[in-house]
């Protein structure tokens, strides 16, 4: 299984914002730090905003910040919301399914179980868990090195 770039970037944005939980960060700053297209990042931030994970502050001096406490942002929920589809096999898409064995096949329930287990495993972790044990500070220092912009958390 491979996550889409949209999901991966959503997680990266949350890690970036988690490294500086009290900051409003420009989309351009995150784009530069990760080498991600700004246009793609805007769509990712929109997805995160729909779920309340981030708060968007419009305007010239606006940006994006965490919309929830990091302990309330479950990684599986983020992936579930950001992933465009979980079509693991052709039979998961009723409109495009042309597999002749679908009516008698027992593979789809097994794959569904695996997918649910995958998301449940991710949901055992929150953004706070990913930033624990000094990781937040290390991430802040790394982001300052990459972007040259102080996150306020790197000391």
Topology:
Blueprint: H1 5-19, H2 27-34, H3 38-50, E1 54-57, E2 63-66, H4 75-82, H5 107-123, H6 127-130, H7 135-147
Antiparallel strand pairs: 1-2
Helix pairs in contact: 1-3, 1-4, 1-7, 2-3, 4-5
Textual characterization of the structure:
There is one protein chain. The chain has 155 residues and is mainly alpha-helical. It has a domain at 5-86 and 126-147: Arc Repressor Mutant, subunit A (Orthogonal Bundle), CATH 1.10.10. The chain has seven helices and two strands; from the N terminus they run αααββαααα. The chain has helices spanning 5-19, 27-34, 38-50, 75-82, 107-123, 127-130, 135-147, and strands at 54-57, 63-66. Strands 1-2 form a two-stranded antiparallel sheet. A hairpin with a 5-residue loop joins strand 1 (54-57) and strand 2 (63-66).
